[in-house]
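Summary for the lay section of the report: proteins are chains of building blocks that fold into shapes. Here we show the chain for Protein/nucleic acid deglycase 2 and then a coded description of the shape we predicted for it.
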Amino acid sequence: MGTLNDLNVAMLAVDGFEQVELTGPRHSLQAEGARTVLVSARTDPILGMHHDKPGDRFPVDLTFLQAATEPEVFDALLLPGGVVNADEIRMHPKAQELVRAMFDAGKPVAVICHGAWLLISSGVVKGRKMTSWPSLQDDLKNAGAEWVDQEVVVDGVLVSSRKPDDIPAFNRAFIEVLQAAKR
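The coded shape description reads as follows.
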């Protein structure tokens, strides 16, 4: 029996997400009993990437519109990176709405690599301590965040990491935050 049974984690992504930044955390969450729900712009399967090479297609469970209509069904949010994914997803108003709803409700949010662009566009990073892929540090600082170069940063219920190499530490920190929030 997992420590995260009965938790629903929304994973937001569009084509071009860094595959391991979704599959690594998803596997760890599911191993602890959490239910993961892939949320995207459309219901068509989305394409993961292995850096600059196409990866696998993943079935989508809900659209941003559907998820934003009932954000209370989710206990947490996971935002993988990938430059193409992160650049597009930040332009979806319903994805931004879902992010703001999770922050407003004080629910855990985990973001890795370029995924922080969606948080910036959603207006939720001001006053937060976090990390990201190094090229986002100016964007985060300009949006009011304190950027640090660390494997994983936990600021309340916000967990952030820099890159795929950080996934083991990212997974451990996110699971600890989810376990604490569940109590």
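Put simply, here is one thing we learned. Residues 8-182 form a domain with the Rossmann fold fold (CATH 3.40.50.880).
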